[in-house]
Amino acid sequence: MYERIKTMNIVRKWEFALTVLLIAIIVSIIVIAANKENTFHTFSGRIVFVSSAAIDQEIYLMTDNNSDIVNLTNTSHSNTAPAWSPDGHQIAFASNRDDNWEIYTMNADGSNQINLTNNSANESDPWWSPDGNKIVFDSNQGGNYEIYTMSSNGSGVTRLTNNSAADIFPRWSSDGSKITFSSNRDGDNEVYIMDTDGSNQVRLTNSPGNDIDASISPDGEKIVFMSDRTDDYEIYTMNIDGTDVINLTDSPSSWDDYPSWSPDGKKIIFSSYRNDNFDIYTMDADGKNLTRLTYQYLLEVYPRWTQ
Predict the structure, then answer these.
(1) DSSP state of 11
(2) What is residue 276's predicted lDDT score, i.e. its pLDDT?
(3) pLDDT digits (tens, 9 = 90+) for 222-278
(4) How would you class 284 by CB atoms within 10 Å of its CB: exposed for 0-12, middle for 13-18, buried for 19 or more?
(5) Which long-range contacts (CB under 8 A, 24 or more apart) does 219-227 make?
(6) Using one digit for the tens of pLDDT, what is the confidence trace for 86-114?
(7) What's the rounded mean pLDDT across residues 28-53?
(8) 226, 218, 302: which is closest to 47 by C-alpha?
(9) Residue 293 and residue 279 in contact, taking contact as beta carbons nearer than 8 Å
């Protein structure tokens, strides 16, 4: 009898162990599936962004989902502020590989990297005109940062702003008629809009914080920008005339920056410091349906989206 009870106890122990093992396997499968779901969010088109494992920053390309991430610049210097050409064939960006910040272009696969500015000043934040013939950028070649344009081959540099303040983050509208930018000419950085020849400069925001990186929606009706008017940076939208300002992210525990529009204007892509890391996120144009795209333990910022 004792041997029988002993045998039954051993069988029960094995049954219990097998049950625990089975539960562990099921939980692992669920976790793996969940991680896979979280890691690979499908989107339409291509996204470039800036990532850094150390001091130097590189520009990466992400296509269809973030399982296919390619380093486009791959230098020993920093590369940042990528911007798609309207046809999606080229990328303009800023790099300090020549010891100062210059504007470069490259093909969408990272080939044929060309220095367009090639001077002793610092240039950054390039943005293409909708016809692809020109690039707007900021530069301190005149002493302080001003807004300039040039042909897409680097010729014909033209200065658009001229004051003692810093004018930065220029962005061309989709219809080619306007350029938004930020300036601290009235104190802190505010969003301005002007005609593409530099005329009719109008201030759109008036907040106690810094309002920067403003771009006009593809339909020309809204502007998205980042602001630290609530101490932490959040993503906002407003009408093209500066009215109806809305905080889309409204997350005091995070840091949300570098927004831009999806090609169809239905979504906004941006970088955010959540979960102890800067990653790339998207949300609907009204702030709903927040979706995380990257899950790397690296700094990932400056996302730009094209078809």
Answers:
(1) H
(2) 87
(3) 999 999 999 899 999 999 999 999 999 999 889 999 999 999 999 999 999 998 899
(4) middle
(5) 219/174, 219/265, 220/173, 220/174, 220/175, 222/285, 223/180, 223/191, 224/259, 224/260, 224/261, 224/268, 225/191, 225/259, 226/256, 226/257, 226/258, 226/259, 226/270
(6) 999 999 999 999 999 999 999 999 999 99
(7) 61
(8) 302
(9) yes
pLDDT level of residue 53 (50, 70, 90 thresholds): low
Asked if residue 75 lies in contact with residue 91, where contact means CB atoms within 8 angstroms, the answer is no
Q: What is the rounded CA–CA span in Å between residue 64 and residue 68?
A: 8
- Structure-token pair, residue 51: 């990532």
**CA atoms of 245 and 289, how far apart (whole Å):** 20
**Are the C-beta atoms of 97 and 111 separated by less than 8 Å?**
no
- Sheet containing strand 114-115, edge to edge, reads 79-84, 90-95, 102-107, 114-115
pLDDT score of 120: 95
In CATH, the number for domain 43-306 is: 2.120.10.30
- E strand or H helix at 227: strand 222-230
Per-residue DSSP letter, 207: -
Query: How many angstroms separate the Cα of 58 from the Cα of each of 114, 125, 130?
Result: 16, 15, 25
Q: Do 93 and 59 touch, CB atoms closer than 8 A?
A: yes
pTM equals: 0.85
Give bridge partners of residue 258 from the DSSP assignment: none
Strand partners, 279: 272
Question: Does pLDDT of 7 surpass 70?
Answer: no
Every domain of the chain and the residues it spans: 1-39, 43-306
Is residue 98 a contact partner of residue 116, using CB atoms and an 8 Å limit? no
* Interatomic CA distance for residues 203 and 182, integer angstroms: 9
CA 85 – CA 79 distance, rounded (Å):
17
